[in-house]
Amino acid sequence: MNSVAQFFITMVLLSNFAMLSVGSMKMLIRLAAAQGVLLALLFLVLSVGQDAMHTIFFSLTVLGVKGLCLPWLLRRTLRHVIEEPQLAPRIGHKLSMLAGILALIFSLWLETRLPVAPGFFPFLLFPAAFCTIVVGFVLIIGRMKAITQVIGYLAAENGIFLLALPLLAEVDGFWFEMLILLDVLAVVFVMGVAIKHINNAFESIDVGRFCALKD
Question: What is the dihedral of CA 137, 140, 141, 146, to 10 degrees?
C-alpha cells in the first residue's frame, strides 16, 4: 500500500506542475478534476485498516465534491462565457514553474525542521501539500481570469486537505474536513454566479479590465 500511496502523491505533484504550464482553461479544469480524484484515492489508500464505512463514505464524498461536482460547475460556467478564454497569465508560465520548483525545494527542507514525530507524514506528503498550496496562490495571483482564480482557491484547499490527511482518521478531523468541503462548494457556486454576471455585464471575465473602470 505504501508504494501505491507514493504513486498517488507523485501524481498530485505532477498535476501541480501541469496546472502551472497549461494554457487552456478547459485543460486546467480537467487537471483540477483529476487532482480531486487523486485525493480521494489517496485518502482511501492511507486509511486502509481503519473504519471501513468512514473511509468509503469520506472517499466517495471527496470524489463527488472535488472530482465531479466542482469541475462540473466550472465547466458549466465556462460554457456561459461569450469568448473562449485563455489563461492570460500575469505571471508567465516559466516564472510560475520556477515558483512551483522553489516551493517544492523549500518544502523538502522545511519538512526536516518541523517539530513532528518521524513518520507522521508519509514520504513526500508534506512537500506535495505545501507545493499544492503555493500553486493555488500562484493561480490566484498570477492569472487574470476569474475562473482560474477559483481553481487556484480549490488547489490551495487541496493542499490543506493533504496536510490534514494524517489527522483525518479522527472523527473530529473528519467532520472538520466535511465542513471545509461544504464551504468550498458554496464558494465555487457563488463564484460561478458572480462570473456569469461579470461576463454578462462586461462581455469578459478578465479581472484586469476592472482597473479601467471610471466613475
Answer: 180
- Supply the pTM of this predicted model: 0.79
Give the SS3 label for residue 144.
Answer: coil
What helix, strand, coil percent values describe the chain, rounded to 5? Answer: 80, 5, 20
> Structural domain of residue 66, as residue ranges?
2-212
- Single-letter amino acid, residue 114: L
- Cα distances from 182 to residues 4, 54, 70, in angstroms, run 28, 17, 11
Q: How many degrees, rounded to 5, is the angle at CA 167 between CA 103 and CA 161?
A: 45
Look at the chain and report how many structural domains it folds into. 1
190-208 per-position pLDDT tens digit: 566 566 655 655 555 555 5
pLDDT in tens, 47-73: 776 667 777 888 888 888 888 888 888
Write b or e for each residue in 8-41: b if 16 or more Cβ atoms lie within 10 A of its Cβ, otherwise e.
bbebbbebbbbbbebeebeebbbbbbbbbbbbbb
Per-residue pLDDT at 15 exceeds 90:
yes
